[in-house]
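Journal club prep, notes for RB
We'll compare a predicted complex against what the paper describes. Inputs for the iron/sulfur cluster case:
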Amino acid sequence: MFKEFLFPYSQAREGQDDLILSIYNIVKNKKNVLVHAPTGIGKTAAVLSPCLAYALKNDLTVFFLTSRHTQHKIALDTLKQIREKFNQRIIAIDLIGKKWMCPVKGANKLNSTEFADYCKAQREEGKCEFYSKTIQKNKLTVKAKKILAEIKEKLPLDVEDVIKICSKEKLCPYELSLILANKADVIIADYYYLFNPLISNLFFKKSKKSLEKSIVIVDEAHNLGSRIRNLLTTKISNWTIKFAIKEAKKFDKKELIEKLVKVEDALLSLGADLDYSEEKLISKKEFVDKINQNYDYDEFIAELEFTAEEVLQEQKKSFIGSVANFLSNWLGQDEGFTRILSFKEVKGQPFLSLSYRCLDPSIMSKAVIDSAHSVIAMSGTLVPTSMYKDILGFSSAEEKNYRNPFPLKNRLSLIIPRTTTKYALRNEEQYKKIALLLADIIKVIPGNCALFFPSYSLRDSINKYFSLFCLRHILLEKPNLTKKEKASLLKEFKSYKDEGAVLSAVITGSFAEGIDLPGDFLKAVIVIGLPLEPPDLETRELIRYYDKKFGKGWDYAYILPAFIKAMQATGRCIRSETDKGVIIFLDERYKWKNYLKCFPPDFNIKICEKYKEKIKDFFQYGWGSVFG
Ligand code: SF4
């Protein structure tokens, strides 16, 4: 069986064999599937192997799409193991964003639109030496052909290796990778290669691949909806316009300066009734009318685009181009989008931002799902699969839910309903109560403990007391940590595994997703409160939209996303068969019917007041002695 499905290991784990067979049947029957498979099942190999086996026999391409670079490596390693075990030649290409592959110094500092404009201008003007050494008169140069052949022999290669080889040879890694993609059996890439219309159209044209002949695996699919919404959202602010005016002055565009000042005036007059931290909806017409009062909207976009091209010949970035891009996106469709004007103070300055925001990711994902041979959306937290089926726009798809493969007796999951972080009940007394409760729980945890709060401000309000009550070393996560700072904090935390320290972090911060703390490095995760923020205007619009579309606005736009974030954070605790730990949800709302029903059945969640005895017994005598 394993050979038929190119499964590279000698044994399948619990659930893995079923997953392999199901996936093979899905692709064989040209169907789609959503898979919830918790950490430990080995879903990358169980999904990639049968897809590849079927694709090789049927002249299809497998796209393995993921939002994280670490997942690229896992997919590549699986392919290397398949190649070794079955002596199977596999052409696999690893792609990251073009600007991250670009060897031009400073290119990765530009935002995506700026980079796209810069790269286009450089190529068209014949100014990029990497491109000219790669492609001449639409054909590969002799040198590029030679290096391409050398790379082919080494595949599958990590994208970093391809970048290194090409940079050394002064070739464009992106262009060479696209040529390689033409013959590829597997393409490992970020979501936006297929889910951003601008990139996907160009990518398919250049790689000569087609969606119809592709099996698309979406890894960490719980992130796909928000990623697409971000991709399809555009913004402009009074700051962007100010920079564009400065640019117009630099390039001596007197007429344009006047027009840009009028755009700034238009924005300011639309926001005149807003105070700091306020926001309101703006219609397409309101903004267009303001611009049209002074000059023709479409002609103005053309003028901005024309000047931006001139600017990009001299510099990498054009704010005039950003204004043009926004004005043209503003004219986009209404259905599935909203338009918001918000006003806040940033660095002591007024910041007025107008945005055209996507609410419905299926605007993009549905087209991919409907065209591809098969789409497999998988994740360790794709619960409930029915919600993702709706919001991503699957018209038909199977739903597969796998239980946690690790022994249930190794995990104690408790709801302690003694406190709450509900907005109306937030006060010093409540903070103190939570801090006391946390310190009391931590006393009986024999090792490291991670706390996840809904926000930094709430964490700090509670930490004021907690740091007085808790005798252990406390490591506080700061916002926007760099990779290096994050690694060093984790290293320090791990060094406390014997005496036990506390990592005090935030659900939306650096530690709730994508980190592994196996074995004795983490003994307990405590999620404090529900990570629900008071719904801002965008969330209210999303609730309205999903109410109209599915009758489930609050669930899809508010409650479930918060619950999923909490679940994601608890996933840091048990990462292997032998890990043993406690997961605690500290808020009375978790025992409410609406939230309780969201826990997957294999979570075995218990509501518990006498937590201390239970935790002690669990670590001393095992799960059976607690609830046996
Ligand atoms: S053509 Fe290649 S090397 Fe040149 S700017 Fe674009 S991505 Fe960078």
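Talking point for the session: The first helix runs from residue 16 to 28.
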